[in-house]
Design a protein that fits this description.
Elements lengths: L5 H16 L3 H13 L5 H14 L2 H7 L11 E5 L9 H9 L3 E5 L7 H12 L7 E3 L8 E5 L2 H11 L4 E4 L3 E5 L6 H12 L9 E7 L5 H6 L10 H16 L5 E2 L4 E4 L9 E7 L2 H10 L4 E6 L8 E2 L18 H6 L2
Parallel strand pairs: 1-2, 1-4, 2-3, 4-5, 6-7, 6-11, 7-10, 9-10, 11-12
Antiparallel strand pairs: 8-9
Helix pairs in contact: 1-3, 1-6
Length: 338
């Protein structure tokens, strides 16, 4: 097996970023075929995912992230159970495993088994030292550590089977946006990306708004009107119609702009095509809620600084940096401890 070096890792990641910026014909073909396998993976959704990785894998950020990278002296076999809710959602975990010098045993989601392997082919083409370090499996076996992503229900299964080895087991999380009522139309329009990118299926998608008492949703609805074509997707439309029917039959108070239902609710995880919201009296009360529910929150979008809360700008929840780890668990530190 070809030796892996610090600079080889960096060069390969830069090359992968370049690929996502200018994908080849093979990728474009897969982008079309992916929708046949998973109707949520529209060409626009796949393109948005590629743009996200192109932004993440820029040379400046990669070199900052990899500055203190230590390759494993004794590579471990790290099992990865990947989700399939949005295109290539598990790629960052896989890149972390490979960049740390370990070997990856990958259980792909049946909903996303085309795009990620093709992206990894580009990584191996750029740096042959990664060849032989990735194995796709139907069942994890003979592993030294596990990173598994799933639901609250599947996490119990993962705990039972993988609790004996070092692990990161991820459960349901959702993202929130805090509004003050002073947002510009441009900021609210950008928030639309956080709500509608990937049809709202990602853990970094905003599923709950925190708004001041008496908030007027009119400005928000006007600012996100250009996302209306989302309703043309048959599965999204089915969810919208179903949830609207439930609200109407049960006389549930809600707002409706024709493609998004907005409901006051204490929940964090809203149904598809539904956005929950809750009111706060002042910023201190909003901060208290954010801190109390931090284990359920993936990220917070806001246009103001919030003491003790890491926020992202509106429109950026689905554009993480390479050092933005899921659930705020440092994946590279975990891999470095093996």
């Amino acid at each position: 097996m070809i030796a892996l070096t610090h600079e080889k890792v960096i060069s390969a990641l830069i090359a992968l970023g370049d690929f996502f910026r200018q994908p080849d014909a093979g990728w474009m073909d897969l982008a079309g075929r992916a929708q046949n396998r998973n109707p949520w993976f529209t060409p626009a959704a796949v393109s948005r995912a590629a743009e996200g990785f192109a932004s993440m894998l820029n040379e400046e950020d990669i070199r900052i992230w990899a500055k203190d990278l230590q390759l494993a002296a004794q590579p471990r076999r790290v099992g990865l159970i990947l989700a399939g809710n949005i295109p290539m959602v598990g790629l960052h975990d896989l890149l972390c495993v490979l960049a740390s010098g370990h070997h990856a045993q990958v259980k792909l989601s049946s909903s996303d088994d085309l795009l990620l392997p093709y992206a990894i082919q580009q990584l191996v083409h750029a740096e042959p030292a990664f060849d032989g370090r990735i194995r796709y499996v139907e069942r994890l076996e003979n592993f030294d550590a596990v990173i598994a992503t799933g639901s609250n229900n599947s996490s119990r299964y993962f705990d039972y089977y993988f609790g004996r080895v070092p692990n990161i087991i991820r459960k349901n999380r959702n993202s929130v946006a805090l509004l003050t009522g002073k947002e510009t139309d441009a900021e609210l329009s950008a928030l639309g990306h956080d709500i509608f990118d990937f049809f709202g299926l990602g853990c970094r998608n905003v599923s709950r708004l925190m708004v001041p008492g008496g908030y007027d949703f009119g400005q928000l609805f006007r600012a996100i009107e250009h996302y209306q074509p989302v309703i043309n997707h048959f599965k999204y439309n089915n969810n919208y119609d179903y949830n609207k029917s439930i609200f109407l039959v049960n006389l549930v108070q809600h707002l409706d702009n024709g493609f998004l239902l907005v409901k006051e609710d204490e929940g964090m995880s809203s149904p598809l095509a539904v956005l929950y919201y809750g009111e706060y009296r002042d910023i201190d009360e909003a901060l208290a809620e954010l801190h109390a529910r931090r284990d359920d929150i993936q990220c917070v979008a806001a246009g103001i600084l919030l003491p003790g809360v890491v926020t992202v700008a509106f429109g950026q929840t689905q554009q993480p940096k390479i050092w933005d780890y899921a659930d705020n668990i440092d994946t590279m530190a975990f891999l470095g401890s093996l």
